[in-house]
Amino acid sequence: MAFEGLSEKLSALVKKMKGQTRISDKDVKEMMREIKLALLEADVSFKVVKDFIASISERAVGADVLESLTPGQQIVKIVHEELISLMGTVPSRITYSSSSPSVYMLCGLQGAGKTTTAGKLAAVLRKDGKRPLLAACDIYRPAAVKQLQVVGGQLNIPVFEMGTGTDPVTIAQKAVAHAKSMLLDVVIIDTAGRLHIDEALMDELKKIRAAVKPQEILLVVDAMTGQDAVNVAGSFNEQLGIDGIILTKLDGDSRGGAALSTKAITGKPIKYACIGEKLSDIEPFYPDRMASRILGMGDVLSLIEKAQTAFDDKSAAEIERKMRTQTFTLDDFLEQMQQIKKMGPLQDLLGMLPGVDAKALKGMQFDEKQYGRTMAVIQSMTRKERSRPDIINASRRIRIAKGSGTSVQEVNRLLKQFEDMKKMMKQFSGPNGKKMLGRMGGLGGMGGKNRPF
Q1: Strand order across the 282-284 sheet
Q2: Which domains occur in the chain, in start order?
Q3: HSE, side-chain direction, 13 A CA sphere, residue 437
Q4: How far apart are alpha carbons 326 and 320 in whole angstroms?
Q5: Phi, psi at residue 433, to the nearest 5°?
């Protein structure tokens, strides 16, 4: 996660502050100093940090905080609220034109990930019921047109291209006309980038903007580029007038704090975040959820949403019933593992849970091969053994190990995980735990030897 370093420092500070029962002006100043250093080390713009600290300090030294019964928690609340404000207060959604098609123009430096992001955005809008068209207007970068065609082919989304010998403005215009004739209601224009901002790049983008009058101009920003991300966002906004930002490579191992500055510098909202290399790895940007994740408070809402896309309500309700009535079998366990695998890497899922130490997760080894071995062990059991694991004695375990190409120790480990998970999930079978129980059953089987639970 790009904000890992910042999250680690702020999470530690949050824990420290929460335990404070009495806070003086001196304590507040010391906390602000630590927050300031954490933000600067994470590459957040100095001006943004200065304003951020000033805003927190002004609220934190008030009598309502210093005289509160839980002043530490009050300050944590203020930091959380100000962090949300820094990133946009409320989620910002993409807008649609009153007349079809809605045109979206992606811009940004070369290497920011515009072409892949164009495909990801098209897939997201298709889920909203739109019929998108991708337009290949980057005629300069080698194989850029081909790359967009490959992305479009993987998503089964049409791509309009005229090769590399036609002016990008003409391509954009003809793409919009083609969308109208084919009754497609969204056009996403993949424009050229440069290694740096220059006059030729901006002139071309301005001409495309004037020719097709896009509903929104979306700036694609690489979260791993440090302070350059801030400078790029400011320059594009000044010269082109952007409507929103899409952050890419948020799964990268970098400080990432500069990405937090883009909204404050441009005044334009972050609309989407790309959190992986897969074409499905894009999600709407929620300032409140990101603030919670940065402060180590988890992101249960996003976790539940991921579960909802992987689990249908009928199967979730059935699994919840089986767990509650203690009729959950190894067949159900295997099905849950298959569903959870669709939700993404286990490290990312666990990182969304409140109180899970991101630093500890980083050192964990989540063996993807463990999934295949677990599957083989279960499939080597008889139907009766899968429904009644208690009958699996020593001789049966030897047979299962041989049949699955694993060891008796691995068979023992799986059976113990299964029993541990049943005990754990039983605790969630009350009224408040039913929904999460139905959607999160089976998590225990994905960890491998060094699983953190």
Answers
A1: 159-160, 132-136, 186-190, 102-107, 216-222, 244-248, 270-274, 282-284
A2: 4-87 (1.20.120.140), 102-295 (3.40.50.300), 301-446 (1.10.260.30)
A3: 25
A4: 10
A5: -100, -5
Question: Would you call 137 exposed, middle or buried from its count of C-beta atoms within 10 A (0-12, 13-18, 19+)?
Answer: buried
In 3D, which of 359, 352, 343 has the Cα closest to residue 441? 343
CA dist., res. 281 & res. 273, Å (int) = 8
> pLDDT tens-digit profile of 94-119?
999 999 999 999 999 988 899 999 99
What's the pLDDT band for 320 if we cut at 50, 70, 90? low
Which residues make beta-bridge pairs with 245? 219, 270
Q: Read off the amino acid at residue 412.
A: N
Residue range 345-387, pLDDT digits in tens: 655 555 555 545 555 445 444 555 677 788 889 999 998 998 8
**Global confidence as pTM:** 0.68
The dihedrals phi and psi of 215, each to the nearest 5 degrees, come to: -65, -40
Bridge partners of 107, per DSSP, are: 219
How far are the Cα atoms of 23, 26, 127, 243, 354 from residue 135, in angstroms, in the given order? 58, 57, 19, 19, 42
pLDDT tens-digit map of 392-443: 999 999 999 999 999 999 999 889 888 877 776 666 555 554 444 444 444 4
What per-residue confidence (pLDDT) applies to 212? 96
Task: Give Cα 107 distance to the centre of its chain.
Answer: 21
